[in-house]
Amino acid sequence: MSTPAPVETVSTAADKAKLAGSVVLLVGGVAAFYLLAQQPLWMRVLALLALLIAAVVVFFVSEPGKQLIGFGRDSAREVRKVVWPTRNEALQMTAYVFAFVVVMALFLWLTDKTLSWVLYDLILGWRS
Description:
Elements: H1 13-35, H2 41-61, H3 63-81, H4 87-123
Helix pairs in contact: 1-2
């Protein structure tokens, strides 16, 4: 078997600065929303959204953001490869699951009643 290649994470100072700037923009957006309490609501929401969008853009320009985009693309590619069941197959499997649940419920009920009868009636004689 082949061993997987070790994952190397290289964080440059520029990436760290981009991530820190993204966090600062995010916190700034929330702070601006509350600091602009005297302004109309639309202006507060606009300031919040503008700073949040700026934070997202700065994040996606950094290396972790690019890796996240790559992961999303790979995930979408894998989802396209999945062979989904037909409606008939899905209904059949659902019926099998329901039937199994009913059989297990009956089995557990019968087991519970049998053990209850053996313990309380035969061994302890509590129910006479």
